[in-house]
Write a structure and sequence with these properties.
By secondary structure, the protein is an all-alpha fold. 68% of the residues lie in helices and 2% in strands. The protein has a two-stranded antiparallel sheet with strand order 1-2. The structure holds 3-hydroxybutanoyl-coenzyme A (3HC). The site of 3-hydroxybutanoyl-coenzyme A has 29 residues, from α2, α4, α6 and α9.
């Protein structure tokens, strides 16, 4: 009598669970390809959160008021926390954080290309909060329904904080757009430089996506790259109009039949150049990450020593 289920039967039971909207938990059986795909996406999401702290950090000492500085500081702190939640979710898949960080620092793992663009003005801080966190919210609200339990639960907590990030960014853009002519021009310049790279955050077209088909089948992704991008494009048009700014996409048109905005094409050569290391700030972002990681060695060593001391004390008491 056969006692163990073979791989094919296990996969069928697994897919049935996915189809029945059951969450997959760390100790559940899962296909190795599902685990690897999840580890790739969650760890790269975490890398993006941590590297994403760098562009805005550039304006911590340049914020125009104490209030703006305090708000920006708390947003950047949130992003670090998002990275930690996501690294913890990734570690439940059996890979230690040190290996994930090594993959980032060696270039084997990616992070969102948007963070390789420089922040040149205060308007950029507003555009990042408004557009980059706005795009992240569209993506992450969908990911709250992802099939892997720890990732879904992390998303629910992260989305609550992202909403504040998006609002503070848009508030900066409103202040600039309703300010002097020079301030309005600053807001327009930031919109022009961050709009298209924000659309790239949703990934390549579904037809070009290496992972989407399986990610949708396993409900890692609940909506496709292009559907999420369209949602973001549609919501951004009235926000640009409210600011009284010019839309960077000259082909943006409402399509009554589609009930969506038709839009121009992303510069995929730029997208590929940036994700292949040739963006404005790729080298700078990684140098900073390596330096910060090196400088933080003593903290990791101290925590390891403290945990070992605690363990020995518990053994003595037992
Ligand atoms: N930047 C860098 N790499 C990107 C990218 C981008 N904008 N878009 C896609 N890629 C990479 C993918 O990682 C993949 O490369 P890989 O095989 O080496 O991992 C390749 O391009 C093909 O793309 P696919 O669409 O096939 O890959 P995915 O199915 O993983 O879809 C994704 C890409 C939509 C980014 C998906 O991974 C995802 O939803 N990730 C979770 C959300 C996330 O990571 N957001 C990043 C921003 S974090 C953030 O915004 C922080 C906020 O606080 C500001």
């Amino acid at each position: 009598m056969k006692t163990t289920l073979d791989e094919q039967e296990l996969e069928q039971i697994f897919q049935q669970r996915i189809d029945n909207e059951q969450k997959i938990e760390p100790k559940d059986w899962m296909p190795e390809a599902y685990r690897k795909n999840l580890l790739r996406q969650i760890s790269q999401h975490a890398h993006s959160e941590v590297i994403g702290m760098q562009p805005e950090r550039n304006f911590l000492t340049r914020a125009p008021s104490l209030r703006r500085k305090a708000v920006l500081l708390s947003k950047i702190q949130d992003e670090g926390g998002h990275g930690l939640y996501l690294y913890s979710a990734a570690e439940t898949l059996g890979t230690p954080r040190s290996e994930l960080i090594e993959a980032l620092q060696s270039g084997a793992a990616k992070y969102a290309s948007i963070f390789n663009y420089p922040t040149q003005t205060w308007g950029d801080v507003g555009a990042i909060g408004w557009l980059v966190d706005g795009a992240a919210i569209v993506n992450q609200v969908s990911l709250q329904r992802t099939s892997y339990g720890p990732y879904a639960r992390g998303m629910i907590r992260i989305c609550k904080e992202e909403s504040f990030h998006q609002r503070q960014g848009y508030e900066i853009m409103i202040a600039l757009a309703q300010g002097s002519e020079a301030q309005k021009q600053m807001a327009q310049d930031s919109l022009n430089r961050f709009y298209w790279p924000s659309l790239m955050m949703f990934g390549p077209h579904d037809s070009e996506s290496a992972h989407s088909a399986r990610s949708m089948k396993w409900k890692i992704k609940r909506e496709t790259n292009d559907d999420l991008r369209q949602k973001f494009i549609d919501q951004t048009v009235p926000q640009i109009m409210f600011l009284g700014l010019e839309h960077p996409d000259k082909e943006i048109r409402w399509n009554e039949q589609r009930q969506h905005y038709d839009h121009g094409e992303i510069d995929w050569d730029e997208f590929n150049a940036v994700i292949n290391g040739n963006g404005h700030c790729n080298r700078q972002r990684m140098e900073h990450h390596l330096r910060a990681h090196e400088e933080g060695t003593w903290v990791r060593d101290a925590m390891t020593a403290y945990k070992e001391k605690q363990r020995k004390r518990e053994v003595q008491v037992a």
